[in-house]
Design brief:
Blueprint (H helix, E strand, L loop, with lengths): L5 E4 L16 H14 L3 E4 L14 H14 L4 E4 L9 H10 L3 E5 L3 E3 L13 E3 L3 H13 L3 E6 L2 H13 L7 E6 L12 H6 L6 E6 L5 H11 L2 E4 L16 H14 L7 H9 L1
Parallel strand pairs: 1-2, 1-10, 2-3, 3-4, 4-7, 7-8, 8-9, 9-10
Antiparallel strand pairs: 5-6
Helix pairs in contact: 1-2, 1-8, 2-3
């Protein structure tokens, strides 16, 4: 079978570094990327956080450049994928980081979602919020990415959003190369169920490369295995989970990527090198 691109979701944006093994300083992020790279990751997806406590996102382009330079110093050939997720109309922060860093890829949240989660007692885990990504906002991001030769990673949280990606392409908004991420496990989005994955894949644009992003605990590994078997690319990291398939909690990204590489090989696929990943993703 084909080689598989493994992405390390390095840190995310919501978890508390005081409680979880989430890197946020340039030095920590570079070291954690190297662990993931050595274990088989060819892409790193990164968020920037303010440097006092690492609890909140930062769109400081100087910090973005410092972090990316630190990662490239340790892993010169790894493919860089930046977040762009922001609530509201003002996209100047993500755009400033894209323009400063000019990464290989960037996340493109491809539709809106009521971002909800309930506690076991029936109370909201956070105030209900709308992760708003209307078409005009998507178009603005796509224009910036096209201008700077950045490949969009179309993140889809629900089935209608997957179907919208094909409409973006047919309307001329979205051009190849691009890749599609099937985001599963968000409480108010697509559930993390292996039996649903073939249906989601069937909704993809023809010939699109794709990967699964699966949020959760040990149950996420069944989806990853099915993804590998169906020919998709793979992503894991402490943004998505802290747990291996046996329920063991990890202390960083390295063990997660090592487990993913093992899973890929069990499915008959070898992790792609960064050079091979560039050929798969960019053509």
């Amino acid at each position: 079978m084909s080689k598989v691109v493994i992405t390390c979701a390095l840190n995310g944006v919501l978890t508390n570094p005081a409680q979880h093994p989430v890197p946020y300083t340039p030095e920590e992020m570079a070291a954690s990327t190297l662990d993931a790279y050595n274990a088989g990751a060819s892409v790193v997806h990164i968020h920037f956080r303010e440097q006092s406590m690492g609890r909140f996102p930062s769109w400081d382009p100087d910090l973005a450049a410092e972090i990316v330079d630190a990662i490239k110093d340790k892993c010169p050939d790894i493919i860089m994928n930046l977040t762009t997720g922001v609530v509201g109309d003002d996209i100047s922060g993500p755009v400033a980081c894209l323009e400063r860093v000019k990464p290989d890829m960037a996340a493109m949240n491809s539709g809106s979602l009521n971002y909800l989660k309930l506690r076991s007692n029936g109370e909201w885990a956070w105030p209900p919020m709308l992760f708003d990504n209307p078409v005009d906002k998507v178009a603005k991001f796509l224009n910036v990415m096209k201008e700077h030769n950045i490949m969009p990673e179309c993140e889809c949280f629900d089935t209608g959003i997957i179907r919208s990606v094909e409409m973006f392409a047919k309307s001329g908004m979205l051009s190849k190369p691009y890749t599609v991420s099937l985001v599963q496990g968000v409480a108010s989005g697509m559930p993390a169920r292996a039996d649903l994955l073939p249906i989601l894949v069937d909704l993809l644009p023809e010939d699109a490369t794709w990967q699964s992003i699966v949020i959760g605990r040990s149950e996420v590994w069944d989806i990853h295995r099915k993804t590998a078997e169906l020919g998709g690319n793979l992503r894991t990291g402490v943004e998505d989970t802290f747990y291996l398939a046996n329920g063991e909690k990890v202390d960083g990204n390295g063990p997660l990527i090592e487990a993913m590489a093992t899973l890929a090989r069990e499915a008959g696929r070898e992790p792609a090198t960064p050079a091979e990943a560039r050929e798969i993703l960019f053509g």
